[in-house]
Queue: 2 jobs
Job 1
Amino acid sequence: MKVLATIWKEFLLLLRDPGGLALIFIMPLALVIVMALIQNNTFREFQETRIDVLFVDEDRDTLSGHIERSFQASPNLHLITAVSGKPLTKDAARRLVQSGDYQAAVIIPHQATFDLREKTKRAVDELFAYYGLGPATLANNTPAVELEILFDPAIKANYKQALASAVEKMVTGVQAEWLTDAMQERFSGTEPKQKIKIDFSRMIHINQTVASENERAGLVLNAVQHNVPAWSMFAMFFILFPLAGNFIKEREEGSMLRLRLISGSQFPVIAGKFIFYLFVCLLQLVSMISIGLYVMPLIGLSKLVLGTNSLGIALTGLAVAMAATGYGLLIAVYFRTPQQALSFGSISVVILAALGGVWVPAFAMPQIMQNISPYSPLNWGLEAFNDLFLRNASTSVILPDLVKLVCFSLVTLAASVLIHKSRTVS
Amino acid sequence: MNPAVDQLSFNVPEGEIFGLLGPNGAGKSTTLMMLCGLLKISAGAIRVFGLDVDKEGAEIRRQLGVAPQDIALFPNLTARENLVYFCRMYGLKGHVIHEVLHHYLEVFGLLDKANMRVSHFSGGMKRRLNLIAALLHHPRLIVLDEPTTGVDVQSRNMILDYMKKLRMEGVTILYSSHLLEEAEKLCSQFAIIDEGRLIASGTLTEMLAANGGGENLEQLFLHLTGKGIRD
């Protein structure tokens, strides 16, 4: 009864605090949308994006033609051969990349086809000479054919690597074809024979599949999958703002004094606040997940994929809410002024969030930070959500993280009750 | 470090209005906080209705109503919401809450303002509501710390009249104030303390006789505590 009365009282107080309501519900929703939009490109793989690449063809022969055709067939690259109606030159491409207008330029030098063909032929001649099938040749020590790729310094490392690999793969394909041609020519001698075409690209296929339960192929960590659970937890831990703010205000205004003067345990006061703000945290999570499901797809972001373990999601939400509320309560009880509580509380939540992988996923952190990260309650929650959303994990898989969150909650709650009790009689 | 109160001993007769008086820093608030169980007693004992404050604080608080000097209410709740919440925390239930609320709101002239937020109340209305919150559970002992500070004459009369009515009903009232004229009219017995020590106690007549006469409580008070400013 006393607990229910406290819950109702907290509800009325929050209802009449527009600033608090905005802080709890509006700000986190805005935050998760803004962060998802900002980080959308950061989380995209090379395969998911389409970048403009300048193409300077000084070769105008087979090699550059092959590369151009391959690039044009790629869904991830948009090849630009002319700017403002003028064919691109090497200098123009360099200027455009330097100025940041384009992220990369591929330059195929003059006579690249001829030089590469010659080098290929020489290699075959050397091979035949080695086995006594042809005359001795001069050592093949002519310089390598130099294709040039210019990069904008701001280009993402994985884009850079992917583009360089793509060019290298194309050239290797052409070279393998020419190597086969040259060998056929040597074997057939002067007799005209039909050319054998070997499709090297069909010799091996790398099948990329996401390792998850229930074969949910294709689902990878993206801006929505990362930001919705991450910033939901951040917002839930920021429950300490209204919680600590109201608690300390009650202490300063004197209403807490009256409650201390009322006979009986102070537990209903603490428990009522805990349960009410726990419920608020869960509401926050539901509203953030709803944004991921229904709003983000409308603004060009991916739809949040929840997985199939509804029980696991509910338990994780509850455990994170308990941990967030417990922490908020401890801050509220421990600090004597709102300035102390809110300053310490907000900075500590930012630190715990950073350590937990809210801003940058833990796997992308330096090793030392990766070692510290598992000590943050936000990391436990985020890991559990990632297991559920991305890996479709069963409840038993996330159980260790849930136990840690609940233990954290119980410890902070117990500490809050003890501190509050000790201050009831000074 | 000097103790806030030392060698302080007095009895409050049951069913009386007892004035605890003293200049600023005399130790009145410390004494009241110890009585309410908000401050630990380092030496000595306080007994209320035969119960030890240190050991049986919870039982004492059940029989104790306190109207602190600072308004101890939730400003963003209405008067009714405040009182309902405190009733529930006192353990009152159902229709009893409704009856108690109606009675006190009517007595203190707040019935028509019951659904107004406390933050919109005048000083006098807040003070009356602060007092009601201390009376909800029908305590046997009421502690009033400056109950009429900042209130108008009408509100003050209303509060003092009701205190007298409670005394007629057998309730004991421990009253602390700087308003000596008001204390003289209201209280039957007094304790004057200074620098943590008791310097006079008894009825006004007894104290005047024991301390070389004088005309009223204020003259006696100044005679005992001096005219020097304390703050």
Job 2
Amino acid sequence: MLQLKEVKKSFKQPDGSELPILDIEEFNVGAGEQVVVVGPSGCGKTTLLHIIAGIGRPTSGKVKIDGWDITLMDEAECDQFRAQHIGYVFQTFNLLPGFTALENVLLGMTFARGGSLLRAAMDFLVRPALAFSKHNPEWDRARHLLERVGLGHRMNHKPPMLSVGEQQRVALARALANRPRLLLADEPTANVDTGNQQAIVDLLQETCREEKVALVLVTHAPEVARQFPRIVPLEEINRVLALR
Amino acid sequence: MSLWKIAWRSIQQRSLASTLTAVSMALGVALVVAVLVIHGVIDKSFRRSAQGYDLIIGPKGSRLDLVLNTVYHMGRPVGTIPYRYYTELADQRFAADVETAVPICMGDSFSGFRVIGTNPDMFDKLEYLDGQKYTFQPGGRNFDWNAPFEAVVGATAARKTGMRVGDTFRPVHGETGEGEEHQPFTIVGILEPTGTPIDRAFFVNIKGFYTLHTVEAAEEKPGSGAASPGSASQNEAAAAAGSPHQADDDRKISAVLVVTQKNDYQRAMAFPRRVVEELDVQAVAPAEEIDRLFRGLVGDIQVVLLILAVLIVVVAGIGIMVSIYNSMNDRRREIAIMRALGARRSTVMAVILVESILLALGGGAIGVLLGHGLTGALAPIIAERTGVVVSPLHFQTNELILIPGLIVLASAVGYLPAVIAYRTDVAQSLIASP
């Protein structure tokens, strides 16, 4: 379901020269498959996830998800595709501090619907009650996911009031909100303690299985990587690292 | 969840800055509303007060002064005209052109309110608005043609002075209240409120009004006794001076209020010119004069005040821009997260614009309430000084322009920070800040 072919990424340096980061001949992930990409810090793991998610564009190459080549999409199409088909769990959780846990989960669903000033005006003029309504399928899905990650009792708490482990579980619920086909997790256990580390890994594996989501997790922690059936060292697929 | 809620959460997150920004917008809008309401109500009140009769026939001089003095009881009388002009208009030469003529005598006051000498036709035949006849509060009536010392009081004047039917009062010569006290008049009726300057005056029988001066002149003679209402000397004086049909005498009046005959349009149009040519007077249409006043000086003042108030609103709008703009650095990561979750560039731009619109409309709504509150607070002062009743609930239709106006302003001032949000580089912002 995920295919990377001849993907290259380089950044321009202050002196004008190109700094190559990624050069991947081929990288494939099957539907529902759980893959761990391992490598030391700074080797391009996050850049790889950004390219798969369409957050960053490759310098060249193709990235296909479920047959859709996201490198051919324009930015707005790519944003929409990401919102609807890809979940993303960040290393630093990246929850919005002003929103409750429930609202953080709802955010992704809001963006998947698309949003413009015209839509905001329509929300306000045509269905003002719905604009602030708490009873619709989106809210039900968000509540269900938070209950699934064990935060049914913390839905209305804002991130600063949640523990680190709880914040990462909210981030996982948010990533799954739009029933994605692919979940990308960037060092999801890097900022949590050992006890929570295992809980997060278990939760990721279980929920991805339940929701039939393919998982690409990047980590530098061997104890995390060991728990997944397929481990891909980045230096094996990234020719830039092989040359160093 | 809607974009409105996302924007609202952003506002809540920066509650202090948002509140201050909204308050500055509220103050600007309050000023605009106060200017609109007060001007609108004064305009309406002035115009409605100038209804009920077609012409004021008065001494030559300033047309505006004649209207302000006769209709609004402001300033000093322009001068006087002979009483016989009233009879000419009412019963003689111009009777065919005139439906109703009512004499007005000014120059006295009581407790700060004008005392106006007139005849019962003032309340029997004239209307204070088109189709609105004067009515009296329960237990009251109009004064009688043959009772020279009867009086009628406007609703506000009665309330402020505590006067009731049956009470007596002594007018004072002059408008300042420092002149010599006259003979007492008995109040026989209190008018229902009309929302016009009539509410703020005492009306006495013109016969009694003239008698005062006759009696006082008699009292000045050595050996004459003091007169009281209904006393022999006063009644005699009234009998001598009272008849409006008395032949050519030296009695004076301030003006005549005239309702013209409308059955012959050309004749009605020619009537003011005829009066001016045949009598030594000026004929002024009060509605036209007030219209000219409002289009001219008052209109210009309103435009200047409105421009100032709108400038304050614009400055408040720029405050919104500065507030959101300053927050953009802190919000770069938030915006990057939204983008990473699938928000398009146009979506984050819309969130910023909606936030700006919410601040402007929220502040504007508070400003409208504040403006009307301010109007309500100023109402007693305006009523005291001008007799114009201003209600805080007087909503002007042109206040509605504030809604699209504020949305346009908010969109304009929100555009710059929205563009910054639009241009936020997601990958860089996510990597840059941990």
